[in-house]
Design brief:
Elements: H1 2-10, E1 13-18, H2 24-34, E2 38-43, H3 46-60, E3 64-67, E4 78-82, H4 89-99, E5 102-108, H5 116-124, E6 129-134, E7 152-156, H6 158-163, E8 169-181, H7 196-203, H8 207-218, E9 222-226, H9 230-243, E10 249-252, H10 258-269, E11 275-278, E12 291-296, H11 303-311, H12 330-338, E13 344-353, H13 372-385, E14 389-390, H14 391-407, H15 433-440, H16 447-455, H17 460-464, H18 468-484, H19 489-497, H20 507-519, H21 530-538
Parallel strand pairs: 1-6, 1-7, 2-4, 2-5, 3-4, 5-6, 8-13, 9-11, 9-12, 10-11, 12-13
Antiparallel strand pairs: 8-14
Helix pairs in contact: 2-3, 8-9, 13-14, 16-18, 19-20, 20-21
């Protein structure tokens, strides 16, 4: 990937974001082959170590060393290592003595590498450049990847993967469960944002409803079910087997012996098992293109986790698009996928009483591609209408509806689902969102920032919906506008209501326009003439005019 290699000429570290199923391993294997000097690839799970080593060996033709537990490399140019196995100084020094210093460290699933333990190799090999690869740079614990990486060299998200014909289309079905009530489950700073033990205790009560939903909507398609803990995973698998063919579902958890896990996966690959039920085992590095249904029975507040779970079913079946080459053949690939045995990936989102928790759903995985307002509107419509729907089409329709509301001067911010993006009032650019996420992560907006935004006219709902990068952009824009003598947020918001969307209205012209609007009773007691309003904001202020 030329963008990443170019970024590393001027920076120590950078990140490639590539949606699950779009060739992340192929990309970093190509970079490892082209990089001058020794290359170390870090992975955090046994399956990922061997998967990466196998792919690199097959793609490059080079011998690949492995560092894992009692297995050591032998001076190979490319080494794949388990990060948990090499974090000691002695182990890392030995690796260098046998083959020389590493020139590049590639970090697979790099969103994990904020913790001190995972960062040890990066701190040790100080002379090496660092390339992170991940399907998502979002973290649920508010820690920013900017602590480790300098920039994002390239991003390729799910929506673009679908449009280009490299991923199947995601469709979603919400299933409301009467017994699901996680309102009292405590929040947690760990993966998923909810206390796992408490969540498992609550979700197991809905095990029968989860089993019924999987059987009803999956049909004869293979599926993966994600649960919060061991109890729910095994209960759901047993409930599915009790309702259909014995052995059609299997549960796998962290304590499942590796040989037994391998046997289950082999049976799933051969189609002997229809449902693979697991708790946090197959969120990363699991390649099963035959899986066409995912059961989200693991409520989460983490966009990263939701993206990883859903990404498991978006791979295209082997052989469907292999013959279609070229970046401009997206339409041909999409047609081939639509005609295949797996035209889409079905997301079964099991929901219930969530209380204070703001849970992540299928619409939320498109961070950077759709705004918060568009995602909120799509989620609300899905909840109101029910039934299976195309996730991307839902978001695009939400965008059109919000644009229509703006054009018809009906923009409102009365509810979270119907609000528009406050940054849109000033036409603030939403690009570079990945860079912002690397720098700031999901850091909450501070009290001083909230107070400043409130003083400048933003509503409590608008401020509450903002992430730290958005708040930073808005505050900067407000300060610049004040220096340039442009309209305030309140003025510009009111003007937009009546169709004046130019963000560069001078403060005095906006004040004159507001006087006109007030005189007309804000459109309630008298009609606002848009042409008159435009003439007021566009003409230069005349001497002696009181505005």
């Amino acid at each position: 990937m030329n963008a990443a290699m170019a970024a590393l000429t001027t920076q120590r570290s950078t990140v490639i974001v590539a949606a699950t199923g779009t060739g992340k391993t192929t990309i970093f294997a190509d970079i490892a082959q082209r990089w001058p000097g020794r290359v170390l690839v870090l992975a955090h799970r046994s399956e990922l170590v061997h998967q990466a080593a196998h792919r690199i060996r097959r793609q490059t033709g080079e011998e690949v060393g492995i560092e894992q537990r009692g297995r050591c490399s032998d001076g190979e140019r490319i080494v794949v290592a388990s990060v948990q196995s090499i974090f000691t100084e002695d182990r890392m020094n030995t690796m260098e003595r046998h083959g020389g210093a590493f020139a590049l460290v590639i970090v697979d699933e790099c969103h994990h590498y904020v913790s001190k333990r995972f960062r040890a190799p990066l701190d040790h090999f100080k002379a090496a450049k660092v390339l992170g690869v991940t399907a998502t740079i979002d973290r649920s614990d508010n820690k920013a990847l900017g602590q480790v990486f300098d920039s994002v060299a390239y991003s390729y998200h799910i929506g673009r993967g679908v449009e280009d014909g490299y991923l199947v289309r995601p469709v979603a079905q919400e299933i409301f469960m009467e017994k699901m009530d996680i309102s009292e489950v405590k929040s947690s700073r760990g993966e998923g944002g909810l206390n796992v033990a408490e969540l498992d205790d609550e979700m197991v009560k809905s095990g029968d409803e989860i089993a019924d939903g999987m059987i009803k909507y999956a049909g004869d398609r293979q599926g993966i079910v994600f649960t919060p803990g061991v109890k729910t995973a095994h209960y759901v698998a047993e409930a599915i087997n009790a309702r259909g063919i014995p052995g059609s579902a299997a549960a796998v958890d962290g304590k499942t012996p590796l040989d037994e896990r391998a046997m289950v996966l082999a049976r799933f690959s051969r189609g002997e098992i229809q449902f693979l039920v697991n708790c946090m085992i197959f969120t990363e590095g699991f390649d099963a293109p035959s899986a066409a249904v995912v059961g989200l029975a693991r409520p989460t507040k983490s966009r990263s986790l939701a993206t990883q779970m859903i990404g498991r079913i978006l791979r295209v079946l082997p052989g469907v698009i292999d013959h279609v080459k070229g970046p401009d053949e997206g339409g041909t690939r999409r047609a081939a996928i639509a005609a295949s045995k797996k035209p889409n990936g079905l997301i079964l989102n099991f929901v219930g009483e969530a209380g204070k928790h703001d849970l992540i759903g299928p619409d939320d995985i498109f961070e950077g591609e759709f705004t918060d307002a568009e995602r909120a509107r799509a989620k609300k419509k899905k909840k109101d209408q029910g039934g299976e729907s195309d996730v991307i089409d839902d978001l695009r329709n939400a965008r059109k509806e919000l644009e229509a509301l703006a054009k018809s001067r009906q923009i409102k911010a009365q509810s979270r689902a119907d609000k528009y993006d406050p940054l849109a009032v000033f036409n603030i650019d939403h690009s570079q969102i990945d860079d912002d996420m690397v720098k700031f992560g999901q850091r909450p907006v501070g009290d001083n920032m909230k107070a400043y935004l409130a003083a400048k006219g933003l509503s409590a709902n608008e401020i509450a919906a903002m992430k730290f990068p958005q708040a930073m952009k808005m505050i900067k824009a407000l300060k610049v506008r004040q220096e340039k003598g442009l309209s305030t947020y309140k003025q510009q918001k009111q003007l937009a209501r009546f169709g004046v969307t130019d963000p560069n209205v001078p403060f005095d012209r906006a004040s004159a326009a507001m006087s006109y609007i007030i005189a007309k009773g804000f459109g309630k007691r008298g009609k606002i003439d848009r042409d008159t309003l435009l003439r007021i904001v566009e003409r230069s202020r005349q001497p002696g005019e009181d505005g």
